[in-house]
Amino acid sequence: MGKRVDKELEEFRQIMEVPSTFTEGFSWTSLLGALFVAFLMVPGAIYMGLLAGKMEVGAAAQWVTVILFIEVAKRAHRHLNKSEIFVLFFMASAAMGMPFSGLLWNQFFINSDAAAASGIADQLPRWYAPVRDSVSYADRTFFHLDWLPVIGMVVFGSFFGELASMILGYGLFRLASDIEKLPFPMAPIGAQGITALAEDVDAKGQASAEDSWRWRVFAIGGAIGLVFGAIYLLLPTLSGALTGESIQIFPIPFSDFTQKTGRYLPAFATGMAWDFGNLITGMVLPFFAMLGSFIGLLVTLVANPLLYKFEVLHNWKFGDDTIQTLFKNNIDFYFSFQIGIAVAIAIVGIWQVVRGVKKARAEAQAKGSGRGDASGFAPPQGRGDIKFWIVLLCYLVVTITYIAVSALLLYWHHGTWQPAGNEDGIRNVILVLFFLGFVYTPLISYVTARLEGMVGQVVEIPMIREATLILSGYRGVACWFLPMPLANYGQMTVFYRQCELTGTRFPSIWKTKLVLYPIILVSSIFFMNFIWGLDKVPSSAYPYAEKMWELNALNQSIVYTSTLGEYSMFEQAFKWLYLGVGSVFGLLLFGLMSVIGAPVMLTYGVVRGLGQSMPHAIVPQFIGALIGRFYFQKQLGLKWRQYIPVVAAGFACGMGLITTVGVGITFLNKAVISLPY
After folding, report:
1. Dihedral sign, Cα of residue 524, residue 530, residue 533, residue 536
2. d(CA 410, CA 521)
3. What is the pTM assigned to this prediction?
4. Which of 149, 205, 568, 656 could join 56 via S-S bond, C-beta 3.0 to 4.6 A?
5. In the 3-class helix/strand/coil scheme, how is 225-274 assigned residue by residue?
6. Cβ neighbours of residue 97 under 8 Å, at least 6 residues apart?
7. What is the pLDDT of residue 148?
8. Distance (Å, rounded) from C-alpha 458 to C-alpha 489?
């Protein structure tokens, strides 16, 4: 790539450096903060996710917990170091984990029109959701014997998933950071926001005003979040709770113009997402990524009407809204085209990794460093690293357990190892699980770890699960809901880099996860059940879920119908020609950008803009990128890259705090029992 790529990535590399010492951050007293989050702020996060598809309450929970403990520590004349604050922040984030959040979706999907129309509603396995005539749906409760297999599978999946993610992610971090010495250019973004309050604590004894800038910047972002949150989320929440009719100055989740503009822009979804957070997102992310997204959106603006004219997008009709337009375009063209684009991304990502390995080896040989010198790969002293054989043992245990449990679930579902008409299906699915667990997962995880370390990007080979299950010859839909040993652990390497940048010992994080796990399980299942008991989900009380869940159900049904053994939506949507077009287009795009020396972020941004993901957020994000690039960055220089992540953290905190007030009032209002006198 050209110099512009290195220059842009260099901005992120220069933000923070790894400290020379590491300290313990875990303390038992900080568990009080986790309990505060788990039992007071989790319900708010669930509610706002259904209302607006947003999780600002989660960010607020993190910051409120940190601020609370800092203030308590001050009054106890105790100093909280950066590691303790980082673990507090992580603990609050982990406490917001909601392993049972999928239960609300499960009860909706099995009873949805999409599942019924596609013929899969009655074939869904009992560990996904109870049968449709279960009385638990009428009672709206998860505390029923019919939900016991579902809850059991969630506990199993969350435990082994967290174990594998933490330990295997650590192992990949060791490879990418300690051995390959990769810079992880995007890690400082998160670390900067997390250490905002630590800077405030550390600066108390220093005279320079520059030393405490993070807290001031965080407060500015928090104030913006409070003001906007009051208008965007608090007003609709309170009006809906108190009057029964939600008042929305800014429509949630977006304004839809497609039915009006369809006359001039057929098959192109138009609208606007009014969330101010999109502007800030555009400022936080690399400028060329946002520019690329906007370019990709403009390409679809021209391409969709042409594809409609030549009857490629033939299902669209005038009057369709955004949801209908996106789904029909997906069926006609973009489902296969996106797979092709993703294939191109995977090929380029793997090529970048191979090239990076060769370059690193060549540089090592040129310097005469002798890559065989094991002492050069030793981890920093005091970081709390573990033996590598523990990582390998964890990988083997988790993978084999996943495969064994999946095999038993298939036997339970069918009642035999060789069901009629599906004699070889179970055996082939088990072979697929061995391939995914012992071949694909380690390969893609390592490739992603190196790509995250080099340019801050994630690589995925698209539809690998779908392709392997379809080729297995299995008939039915139970295979889609097995606990598969399929994951990309390379993404966890960025988290460990952030942990390292804050000088936090790794065992602090592992102990936190272990202690928090039962707390998370209890709070998650309790509040999911409570919210379902308040009202039907989705319903008019939850505008985001009511609008978006049906689209998600339709898109999921496309894949699930592929193993029914009959003509399905998947066969209608999957076309090798369009997949090939997407692959060729993606490779040509990457090749062209490389030739002209365009930033790598621009290329990935264009791909995102072409992805037919919700387009209404791209315009405000691009506006935010323009403001950040051509005003704030000119005024502040590199400091802008340090300021804006902290502003974003403060904004999320402010939004979450103000909406938590509305959620609390809503819960009180709906929990009141009306007396007959």
Report:
1. negative
2. 26
3. 0.75
4. 656
5. HHHHHHHHHHHHHHHHHHHCCCCCCCCCCCEECHHHHCCCCCCCCCEECC
6. 516, 520, 524
7. 95
8. 11
pLDDT tens for 548-587 read 888 888 888 888 988 887 766 677 778 889 889 988 988 8
Q: What are the phi and psi torsion angles at 23 (to 5°)?
A: -125, 160
How many Cβ atoms from other residues are within 10 Å of residue 422's Cβ?
19
Taking the mean position of all CA atoms in its chain, how far away is CA 344? 22
Neighbouring CB atoms inside 10 A of 319's CB total 11
Mean pLDDT score, 482-503:
88
What distance in Å separates the CA atoms of residue 586 and residue 660, rounded to the nearest whole number? 43
Cβ density class 249-271: b for 16+ within 10 Å, e for less: ebebbbebbbeeebeebbbbbbb
Q: How many CB atoms lie within 10 A of CB 380?
A: 15
Q: What is the 3-state secondary structure (H, E, C) of 338-373?
A: HHHHHHHHHHHHHHHHHHHHHHHHHHHHHHCCCCCC
Q: Which amino acid is at 416?
A: T
The amino acid present at 355, given as its one-letter code, is R
What six digits make up the tokens of 424? Answer: 């070889």
Q: Taking the mean position of all CA atoms in its chain, how far away is CA 545?
A: 17
Q: Kindly report, residue by residue over 582-607, the tens digit of the pLDDT.
A: 889 888 888 888 788 777 677 777 77
Q: Pick the more confident residue, 405 or 185.
A: 405
Residue 670, amino acid: K
With bands split at pLDDT 50, 70 and 90, how would you rate the model's confidence at 211? very low
The rounded distance, in Å, linking the Cα atoms of 568 and 556 is 12
- The secondary structure of 95-131 as a DSSP string is HT--TTTHHHHHHHHHTSHHHHHTT-GGGS-TTT---
Please state, as a whole number, how many other Cβ atoms lie within 10 Å of the Cβ of residue 385. Answer: 17
Pair 43, 100: CB distance under 8 Å: no
* Amino acid, res. 207: A
Query: Distance between CA atoms of 134 and 510, rounded to whole angstroms?
Result: 40
Q: Supply the angle between the helices 322-329 and 543-560 in degrees, to the nearest 10.
A: 10
Type of residue at 504: T
How does pLDDT run across 163-178, given as a tens digit for each residue?
A: 999 999 999 998 888 7
User: What pLDDT does 455 receive?
Assistant: 60
Helix, strand counts (H, E) of the chain: 31, 2
How far apart, in whole angstroms, are the C-alpha atoms of residue 506 and residue 382? 9
Highest mean pLDDT among 220-224, 390-394, 601-605, 614-618: 390-394
Report d(CA 404, CA 430) in Å as an integer: 9
284-to-3, 192, 199, 623, 639 alpha-carbon distances in Å: 22, 12, 20, 12, 13
Per DSSP, the residues of 500-549 read HHTTB-HHHHHHHHHHHHHHHHHHHHHHHHHHHHHS-SSSTT-HHHHHHH
Quickly list DSSP for 268-319.
---EE---THHHHHHHHS-HHHHHHHHHHHHHHHHHHHHHHHTTSS-S--TT
| Residue 601, burial from CB neighbour count under 10 angstroms (0-12, 13-18, 19+) | buried
640 confidence band (pLDDT: 50, 70, 90): confident
What 8-state DSSP symbol labels residue 209?
G
Residue range 183-191: average pLDDT? 67
**Per-residue confidence band for 407, with pLDDT thresholds at 50, 70 and 90:** very high
